[in-house]
Amino acid sequence: MTESGIVESYIKLREEVNETAIKLNAETNRLSLGRLVSFAIGVIAVTIGLVDSKTLALIIGIVALVCFVVMVIVSYKKNDMLMEAKASCEVYDRYIKRFSDEWKEFDDDGVEFLDASDSYVKEVAMDLDLLGEESLYQYINVCGSYSGKEKLYKYLTLAFSNRDAFLDSARNLESVFMTSKIAIEERQAAVRALTKLDELSYKLETLILKAKARSKKDLLLNPETAFKSDDDDRKFTAIVLALTIILLGASWISVILAVLKVMSFLVPTILFVLTFVISQFMDGTFMGVSSEAFSFVNYLAAYEEFLSEITSHDYESDALKRIKSEIAKDSDKAILGLKTISSAINLRANPLVYGLLCTAVFYNALIYLRFASWKKKYIKRVPKWIDAAGEMEAFLSLAVIGRVKSVSAFPNILEDIKPVIDFEELYHPLIKESTVVSNPCRIKEGIRIITGSNMSGKTTYLRSLGVNVCLAYSGAMVCSKEASLSIFKMFTSMRVMDDVGRGISSFYAEVLRIKAMSEFVKNKVSMLVLIDEIFKGTNSADRIIGAKGVIGTLAKPWVCGMITTHDFELCDLAEAHSNITNNHFDEYFEEDELKFEYKIKDGRCVTTNAIHILKMAGINI
């Protein structure tokens, strides 16, 4: 399907769901009015019936109050349906925005992981626009939980974050590469299955947004800490249980005794007022004891439908089967119990009903005790459910590429120990497919020196390769008609910046990056290097000498790489080294206007355009 055809299909889906949302909104408004009217009639009629001993009025009042309760229940269901319809609209709307620049407005760009990463991972992620503002993460992320977001971040950075695994593996490379290949192909199988299960995938994404709307916060970073059952927690639970038994027992026994005229109704009245006062005084404590845990209850209850939806389907992928199996272990009973707790907590949204229940049955204390019992029974399973759900979210995010790109493919992961890269019609996922220019990228070993005029496409070509390698290792489809690649360690030096605080200039920062590459070469482990404008921060004489030395060091059988430069002198290295080749991008003039083809070509560049660009900018030369 073409790009325009994909967009039209999403627009149609959004319109269908939006019509449902409009109808549901109208129904909820009518129910709100009905609740208000029935409650008012019920209170007035019951009051008249009791005060004036009007039986008919009392019956009318009771019926009206019953209608009020029924409409409250129906309203909850309708509001839930409306919330889901709105979330579904948002899912389709987000897909539509991915075909324009509006996706850059998405509020979750993974910057928290960029800030938390070590300097090496942070540098490469910034070079390739993997994390942060206007990044690949921002483009594809559909995760709602911290667990899912963290897994997506880790999957996207596998190509360069696993340095230690490579360094420790020099003695048994075949085993390490095969293990990595199996893991990648398992993720591929999961993503491939989800790309075929459109209806399920959109439903799951809808439930994620619905869960986010309910919880209004991310999942706790450490669920085990939130659910820790320490001595203070157990002591408090025992106190609440004793207080509940005493208050409720005394209150309702006094009611019976008052009915039997053993005592005045003043006694149960005082006891119920006392119960209400204590319940309100301790309400914050009940809902705040292990406050993180209670917020987590709301969160997990919000995710109840997501977890249930996962377990209601059968899968061919081993990874998806494992996710389903993990969630299915006791989760149905646990989720049902948690859903009951969540519904009980949600009654706080109706202060009148909530207050009456707290007065009559010490309601919030019962909620706390019910949760304490649930926690004791299921506490150890929760982190595993969250981990499994997070993995599903990450896979859904990785499946986005296949849903929005008309030209995409699952890459073939090769077993070659030496680096092999073969992309047909490679392009950058963050450039609109309608305007992007694709290029082949075939490298077995050796270094490609890429020359070309300013703005001709050199840097974009390097980033296109780097970001698609990251997609390939994550298990996602790549932006290419066909693709094959082996497993290697990736190094980059592109968006190099100075560090004033550490007294490091941009040139020295680049030197440190390239030093890391030169040191890693000694391990004789398969690697890919991507260097943009090598040593651009120093004079041309020193730059050329330094670049020649680095390229000579990197030109090894276990290294493949691409190095862009404006120094044509570096192209002469291809004559002395069989595994160094030249490629270039060029431009042409049409009626004195500078034009670019953005197509990579063999050989060195023979044209320049800096003077023309300066004139275009209005700078007189």
Briefly say what this structure is.
The protein has 621 residues and is α/β, with parallel strands linked by helices.
List keywords for this structure.
single chain, 621 residues, alpha/beta, Rossmann fold, 6-stranded mixed sheet, 4-stranded mixed sheet, 27 helices, 62% helix
What is this structure's SSE topology?
Layout: H1 3-52, H2 55-97, H3 111-116, H4 119-127, H5 136-140, H6 146-156, H7 158-161, H8 163-167, H9 173-196, H10 198-215, H11 223-226, H12 231-259, H13 266-281, H14 283-288, H15 291-302, H16 304-311, H17 318-328, H18 331-346, H19 351-361, H20 363-378, H21 382-398, H22 400-404, E1 412-413, E2 421-426, E3 439-443, E4 446-452, H23 458-474, E5 482-485, E6 489-493, H24 506-521, E7 527-531, H25 540-554, E8 559-565, H26 573-576, E9 580-585, E10 587-590, E11 593-596, E12 601-602, H27 610-616
Parallel strand pairs: 1-5, 4-8, 4-9, 6-7, 7-8
Antiparallel strand pairs: 2-3, 2-5, 9-12, 10-11
Helix pairs in contact: 1-2, 2-10, 6-21, 6-23, 10-15, 10-16, 12-13, 12-20, 13-19, 15-18, 16-17, 17-21, 18-20, 19-20
